[in-house]
């Protein structure tokens, strides 16, 4: 099967490009199917979704293990309002590509309105950000009014930090924002393309390619861990916040942003996750953080609308704090 590439979905807004270079710039491995897909795309662009669906569905009988074909069929079913059929097509895409580089599992959950997935598939995130690395900063800063690094910087100013870890460092915008507040900055990201951009900033002592959902606690201990606009791609936060607690030095600080939601964990149409204040506070407290402060802010824009979220700053308990009776716990 050909390598599946990510659909062109802006990682900061979830906006799909309805052009022919989405995920379909590779062959199904069957010339007949490729030609039928081309005809079906033309029908869809002309507004005849029913005919496009029928043509592609028939073609898929020849290539039942082609994940991208099932993904496209699911998109058309969803656009036509047939959410059950869309969910089944996305499920077939996941079965054909268990790594789910297209993020079909997220689309399936959105169609069903039932959140089965609690994190974005790593293969999907990696391909997505590799694809957007070159123009990522322009899209973020100039078009979407991205503010996460500056918001975190403002929340943490007034103190110097020794060793900082920039989780999901991307192109290095947060590293630049914190360069004069820290003695040393390391970064990690799942995207090699993003890491290459970050390396050019000249502010990181060490950069590592890593899946944040699979990090293991090592010997390094950081004075500050930040995650600017990163946890929206991880979903459930218990594991990553537990990792942060494990790698922070005594009295270390964790600072991050999340999109604000009403439920503990909400998968949005953008295929990003939102989190409730109560859920974030509970996870941090369970992980051993002693002081938690959360401020409601405007994080960025999405298709003209302001996306609200939280700037979260949490301090790891000192040994003396852990021996206390808990009266000093502050959830602000």
Describe the structure.
- With 332 residues, the protein is α/β, with parallel strands linked by helices.
- The chain has 2 domains: 87 residues, Alpha Horseshoe (Serine Threonine Protein Phosphatase 5, Tetratricopeptide repeat), CATH 1.25.40.10; 196 residues, Vaccinia Virus protein VP39 (Rossmann fold), CATH 3.40.50.
- The protein is built from 13 helices and 10 strands.
- Strands 1, 2, 3, 4, 5, 6, 7, 8, 9 and 10 form a 10-stranded mixed sheet that branches.
- Helix 3 packs antiparallel against helix 4.
- The longest helix has 15 residues.
- The chain is elongated and about 65 Å long.
Topology, number of strands: 10
**SSE string, helices as H and strands as E:** HHHHHHHHEHEHEEHEEEHEEHE
The stretches of 5 or more residues where confidence is low (pLDDT under 50) are: 1-25, 322-332
Return Rg in Å. Answer: 21 Å
- State the helicity in percent bands: 25-40%
CATH architecture of the largest domain: 3-Layer(aba) Sandwich
Spatial gap, N to C terminus: 52 Å
- Domains counted in the coordinates: how many? 2
- In terms of DSSP E residues, the strand content is 15-25%
Report the major sheet. 10 strands, mixed
The average pLDDT value, as a whole number, equals 81
**Shape summary:** elongated
Named CATH topology of the largest domain: Rossmann fold
CATH level-1 class of the largest domain: Alpha Beta
Superfamily (CATH H level) name of the largest domain: Vaccinia Virus protein VP39
Q: What structural class do you assign from the helix and strand content?
A: alpha/beta
Number of helices: 13
């Amino acid at each position: 099967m050909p390598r599946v590439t990510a659909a062109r979905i802006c990682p900061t807004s979830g906006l799909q490009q309805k052009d022919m270079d989405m995920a379909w710039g590779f062959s199904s491995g069957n010339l007949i199917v490729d030609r039928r897909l081309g005809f079906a795309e033309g029908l869809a662009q002309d507004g005849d979704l029913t005919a496009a669906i029928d043509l592609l569905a028939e073609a898929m009988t020849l290539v039942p293990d082609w994940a991208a074909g099932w993904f496209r069929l699911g998109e058309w079913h969803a656009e036509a309002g047939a959410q059950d059929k869309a969910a089944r097509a996305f499920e077939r895409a996941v079965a054909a590509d268990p790594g789910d580089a297209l993020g079909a599992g997220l689309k399936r959950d959105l169609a069903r309105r039932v959140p089965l997935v609690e994190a974005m598939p790593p293969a999907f995130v990696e391909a997505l950000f590799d694809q957007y690395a070159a123009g990522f900063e322009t899209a973020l800063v100039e078009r979407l009014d991205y503010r996460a690094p500056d918001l975190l910087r403002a929340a943490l100013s007034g103190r110097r930090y020794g060793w900082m870890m920039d989780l999901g460092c991307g192109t290095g915008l947060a590293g630049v924002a914190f360069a004069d507040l820290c003695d040393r900055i390391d970064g990690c990201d799942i995207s090699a393309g993003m890491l290459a951009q970050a390396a050019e900033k000249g502010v990181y002592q060490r950069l590592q390619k890593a899946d944040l959902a699979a990090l293991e606690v090592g010997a390094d201990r950081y004075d500050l861990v930040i995650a600017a606009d990163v946890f929206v791609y991880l979903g459930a936060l218990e594991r990553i916040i537990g990792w942060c607690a494990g790698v922070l030095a005594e009295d270390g600080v964790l600072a991050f942003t999340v999109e604000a939601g009403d439920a503990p964990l909400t998968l949005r149409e953008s295929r990003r996750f939102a989190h409730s204040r109560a859920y974030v506070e509970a996870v941090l407290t369970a992980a051993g953080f002693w002081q938690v402060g959360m401020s409601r802010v405007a994080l960025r824009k999405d298709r003209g609308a302001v996306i609200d979220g939280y700037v979260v700053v949490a301090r790891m308990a000192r040994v003396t704090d852990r021996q206390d009776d808990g009266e000093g716990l502050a959830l602000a």
